[in-house]
Amino acid sequence: MKMNSPSPTRNTGLRHYFCVRLPVYLFIITVGYVLSIGPLFWQWHASAYLNGKNPGIIAQIYFPLALLCDLSKIFSGIINWYINLWIL
Known about the structure:
The chain has 5 helices and no strands. The protein is elongated, with a radius of gyration of 21 Å. It has one domain. By secondary structure, the chain is mostly helical.
């Protein structure tokens, strides 16, 4: 007796799509976010330190990155090295 295997449904194809591609997209977005601080450093600096008590939107966007730099000396060293490539 031969058992019929269930045919793949559209839902499993969509689930596979999200399970495979979503982590890749999140990785690309995260790397792009971290690397974007280099060319935007002076805008971030002005937004964070020259606006007084009201930081600008750029300072708020990069706040998680600044917090991570405060928490990890290794990550801070890597980010500072990368920023120095852009500001020198």
